[in-house]
Amino acid sequence: MAPDRPPQPPVSAGAVAAVPTPPLAGRLKGMLALLIVGAIVVLAYRQTSFDLEALFTGAADFWRFFGRLVPPFSEVGSDWGAYLPELVGPLIETLQIAYVGTFFGTLLAMPLIFLASANTANDPVTMWIARTLLTVLRSIPDLLWAAILVPILVVGPLPGALALTLFSIGILAKLGSETVESADPGPLEALRAAGAGRTATIVYAVVPQVAATMVSYILYVFEINVRASVIIGLVGAGGIGFTLQTRLNFFDYTGVGLIIVVIFAVVLIIDSISVWARSKLI
Amino acid sequence: MSDQSHARPLQIPRPPASQVRNRYALLGGAGLSVVLLVVVLITMNLPTWDRVMLGLRRTLPPLWRGFTNPDFELFPLAFNAMMETFYMAVIGTLLGGVLAFALSFLAARNLLGGTARAMPGKALLVAVRTFPEILLAIIFVAAAGPGPTAGIMAMGIHSIGFLGKIFSDVIEGIDPGPLEAINAAGGNQIQVFFFAVVPQVLPEFASNLLYRFEINLRAATILGLVGAGGIGGPLLQRLSFRRWDEISMILIVIIGFIIVVDAISSRVRRQLV
């Protein structure tokens, strides 16, 4: 201890125990929130009759099922070496669907981004309409879009591409308008003060600020679309998911196993490329 | 100043070289993507225009009739199915949260002492995240039979990837001060964990759990398409019979429910962080 330190007053036992307590209102609010969440969880557990025990008692069945997916342990189904080349066609179709969906989704999202952002919107009414449209587009998952569009359009890649287009618009416009709204208002004001119109303001003041982020978001949406395009075939919207559905109907489990492995590999590869490219952008 | 402006009239400065380069890169990228689109559209197995128009002429009039007259008698059934979907998402998110909570400490660099030791955990999380949820659902339906349990398992397992990554990022970003303080005051590892780590990460964890719940609620609406419980099952039946008046009612319930839950959830999240 330093010798020049002034003598400390003796610490009483009472002072040590006086750890400050958080305010009562905050604690009550926290407890109430916990109570509500707990009630919902208990209700949900009972309503879904979720069976945690079955997972352990059924574990043997589960591993036996996995065994059936892999050729050496399974006598039924396709030979992996012979079946693999047949998957190339559906796989290319899958990537085509993802690309077309991303392209048209981006194209259609662009005007909506500027209509839905507070700092570039025309007027409050169109902004509200644009935002509502985007909320509805986003609240329907991609697979559901595909399931709705397959009976309307012909079975095949067309409804798949359209489903991904619609879903991409929703995500991209949401992410995009958040970026546009956080853009530096300086250049916008400068151009408006110099008498530039709305289009010129957007092109010269907003676009240069958000371009890099937008490209990164487009890549991100492409990632999402690749993931979606491998599965939308399950409802008849083309691609490798359609092949998967056929194999499932034939109980060709080794075929199903191979398709799952291939899908996993493709998604992993596209994801890593996209993540790498995005890290270079921003 | 005034001399100069007389000698040289006001000139807009040229944009810096990097900006010009970026502009060309952007235009080049856009051009390339259009070329690629043309190639893809030519090679793609698209139906003929006549075939599409024939299909549209056949489906659009009944579709319009159905969507303008939703079958309100189906509302109780649709709402109950949506509540089941909601409950599935609750348990699925909770399951994913618990599993991710345990795993996230095995993927946090600062707790394990080194990037190399966190690598296996991080790789596992990436693998889980990449595996499509609906494939998990197919596997669980085949192994455990159809029903909400299969869907909950699929959601729970898939959520680990996302939540585990976020959780471990949060843990890596905590302030080491409180940890050292409790250590210095003689606290053991368990006390450090409960009084220094947990209070710091709890709000972020709760907020991300809620965010994941929003995602899972959307996912849960489609899990029924492969027999894993929820509103997707009744919807798929009606889609195959093209009962548009009932389909539109179910869609209204799904969209309305999701918008309301999203609004509540994002409000709570703003309070948390």
How many individual domains of chain B?
A: 2
Biggest interface, and residues per chain?
A: A-B, 56 and 65 residues
Number of helices of chain A: 13
Tell me the total number of β-strands of chain B.
Answer: 0
> How would you state the average pLDDT of chain B, rounded?
86
What proportion of the residues of chain B is helical, as a percent range? over 70%
| CATH fold-level label of the largest domain in chain B | MetI-like fold
Spans of chain A of at least 5 consecutive residues whose pLDDT stays below 50 are: none
CATH classification, class level of the largest domain in chain B: Mainly Alpha
CATH topology type of the largest domain in chain A: MetI-like fold
Overall 3D shape of chain B: extended
Global mean pLDDT of chain A: 83
Contiguous low-pLDDT stretches of chain B (5 residues minimum) are none
User: Hey, roughly how much beta strand do the residues of chain A contain?
Assistant: under 5%
SS class of chain B: mainly alpha
The total of beta strands of chain A comes to: 0
Count every helix of chain B, treating DSSP H or I runs of 4 or more residues as helices. Answer: 12
Q: Just give the CATH class of the largest domain in chain A.
A: Mainly Alpha
- Globally, the shape of chain A reads globular
